[in-house]
């Protein structure tokens, strides 16, 4: 889109919420505003990171497409979250069509006082007994799990990125070199006409062109599988990087409970005050457990889809390569 009579151009994204039906258009700066509101309000929720904003060359086609794919993933994660999806600021982002109303809603979100620790006061938690030691043990288990998952996601992302580079570079180059070498054989065979077989020369030349085409197929293939894998891995790298701070918050709450109980036992703090600290810790504990549960549910679904898409696209790709090779093989059958 453009403004100032075409002097300045910018990219906007069309969003059509199913519950409203009317599309809205949002620029990256609007996503960025929403992201910062989410961080400010939800300190015990792992808010997905936005895809990077590239300062230079931002209108390059590949970058635009990559950011679009990752914003779609970001929106998918946001709408699946039982708390983030219901946030008034997010609903405003999804549905507001009027500029004046947008500014009013934006100011309202920025003046929201129920943020951070105050947001926890809005929680309604189960009345069931919660053993804080059990919660702490579960948090420790999740901490170890998230660290291991973060390491493995980084490893897979590194390997997949290197494979992309090979597809668009090395693999294409090697298949094209092979194709060119076959073409050279065909040209050499044509140099002594009395002993030249036109059908054989044509078949070998066709094989050369086939391998050159296969090289191009390899170069294009990451768009069908590896890019989607890297998008999902990038989303989870962001989500996992949030958990150390969230877990640190919970650990701080545990420490306060233990300290307050010790002071109460020593008569240096009223039991009512110590009980209040324990209640607030229970809120943080339930909130973190809910977030961990949601993370695992989404992880299973997202990685299932990621692996299914990768394998299906790989099968289709090698079937297409096989079809090309079978086609050139048949040219030799009638010789």
UniProtKB/TrEMBL annotation:
Main localization category: membrane
GO CC terms in record: cytoplasmic vesicle membrane; plasma membrane
Keyword Cytoplasm in record: no
CDD domains the record matches: BAR_SNX33
One annotated GO biological process: endosomal transport
Compartments reported by the entry: Cytoplasmic vesicle membrane
Domain of life: Eukaryota
GO MF annotation, one: phosphatidylinositol binding
Record key words, sorted: Cytoplasmic vesicle, Membrane, Protein transport, SH3 domain, Transport
Cited InterPro entries: AH/BAR_dom_sf, PX_dom, PX_dom_sf, SNX33_BAR, Sorting_nexin_WASP-bd-dom
A Pfam family of this chain: BAR_3_WASP_bdg
Domain PX: 1-101
Family, as annotated: Belongs to the sorting nexin family.
Record-given protein name: Sorting nexin-33
């Amino acid at each position: 889109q453009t403004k100032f009579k075409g002097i300045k151009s910018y990219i906007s994204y069309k969003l059509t919420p199913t519950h409203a039906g009317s599309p809205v258009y949002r620029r990256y700066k609007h996503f960025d505003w929403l992201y910062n509101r989410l961080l400010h309000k939800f300190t015990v929720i792992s808010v997905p990171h936005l895809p990077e904003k590239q300062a230079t060359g931002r209108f390059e086609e590949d970058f635009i497409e990559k950011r679009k794919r990752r914003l779609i993933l970001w929106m998918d994660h946001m709408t699946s979250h039982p708390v983030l999806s219901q946030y008034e600021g997010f609903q405003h982002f999804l549905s507001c069509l009027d500029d004046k109303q947008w500014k009013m809603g934006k100011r309202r979100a920025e003046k929201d006082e129920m943020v951070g620790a105050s947001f926890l006061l809005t929680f309604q938690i189960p009345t069931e007994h919660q053993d804080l030691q059990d919660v702490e043990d579960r948090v420790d288990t999740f901490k170890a799990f998230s660290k291991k998952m973060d390491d493995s996601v980084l490893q897979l992302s590194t390997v997949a990125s290197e494979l992309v580079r090979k597809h668009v570079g090395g693999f294409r180059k090697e298949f094209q070199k092979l194709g060119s070498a076959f073409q050279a054989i065909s040209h050499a065979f044509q140099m002594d006409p009395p002993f030249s077989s036109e059908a054989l020369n044509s078949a070998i030349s066709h094989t050369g062109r086939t391998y050159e085409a296969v090289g191009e197929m390899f170069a294009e293939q990451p768009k069908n599988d590896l890019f989607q894998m890297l998008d999902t891995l990038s989303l989870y790298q962001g989500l996992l990087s949030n958990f150390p701070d969230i877990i640190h918050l919970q650990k701080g709450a545990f420490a306060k409970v233990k300290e307050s109980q010790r002071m109460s036992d020593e008569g240096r703090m009223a039991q009512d005050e110590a009980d209040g600290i324990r209640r607030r810790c229970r809120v943080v504990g339930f909130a973190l457990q809910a977030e961990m549960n949601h993370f695992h549910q989404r992880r299973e679904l997202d990685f299932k889809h990621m692996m299914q898409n990768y394998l299906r696209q790989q099968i289709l790709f090698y079937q297409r390569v096989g079809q090309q090779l079978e086609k050139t093989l048949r040219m030799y059958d009638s010789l």
